[in-house]
Amino acid sequence: PYSDLPGDTSISYTAAVCWCLQNVRGHRALAPIAERLNDSLTRALHFLETTVDGTGCLRWEPYETHGQKFRTYPMVMAARVLARAGTKEPARRIVGYLANLYDPQRGLLRVLDVPLGQTVKIFGHRLFGEKIFEVAFNQADMLESLLDLREDL
Questions:
Q1: In angstroms, rounded to a whole number, what is the distance separating the alpha carbons of residues 112 and 106?
Q2: Average pLDDT, stretch 46-60?
Q3: Which of 12, 13, 112, 124 could cross-link to 68 by cystine, CB 3.0-4.6 Å?
Q4: Is-contact 56 98, C-beta < 8 A?
Q5: What is the pLDDT, as a whole number, of residue 39?
């Protein structure tokens, strides 16, 4: 669980926090809580690993209760942190799944075909294709995470 609210889990938030923890590991200011941070990171990475299905898609249900459900970016971040932690097989599956989402005209912008500026229902959930996912910085963030994977996969 991401918080103390009943049933509150989040693949996207967990992946983002793992990335932050991986980047601050070993910093001397965190030495007093280093063991607790490592335990939390280990638990979080195990959670992420269990959310990757055989095809590399994330098991959004019931593990994502926040607005990032079905988005491409959390998949990139989950692959990144799993690969960095040495959990390569689930990371490879995610990258393979993402390769199938790639569109030469739009990059990894495809958010399971949610048209930008429109609202659709996917698997019974209302999703809005936000314009923010069209901007270059979002694409660049994903690309940066994926490029880093070359070192770890």
A1: 13
A2: 93
A3: 12
A4: yes
A5: 92
Which has the higher per-residue pLDDT, 90 or 25? 90
Output the CA torsion sign for 146, 139, 22, 5. Answer: negative
- Global pTM reads 0.73
Task: List all residues 6 or more positions away from 89 whose beta carbon is below 8 Å from its beta carbon.
Answer: none
Locus of tokens 């459900």:
69
Structural contact between residues 16 and 75, judged by C-beta atoms closer than 8 angstroms: no
Pick from 78, 81, 72: nearest CA to 114: 72
With CA atoms as reference, report the closest residue to 148 among 95, 104, 108: 95
DSSP string computed for the chain: --SSSTT---HHHHHHHHHHHHHHTT-GGGGGGHHHHHHHHHHHHHHHHHTB-TTS-B-HHHH--STTTT-HHHHHHHHHHHHHTT-HHHHHHHHHHHHHH-BTTTBT--STT--BT-EEEETTEEEEB-GGGGSHHHHHHHHHHHHHHHHH-
| Averaged pLDDT for residues 34-52 | 93
Q: What six digits make up the tokens of 79?
A: 């692959």
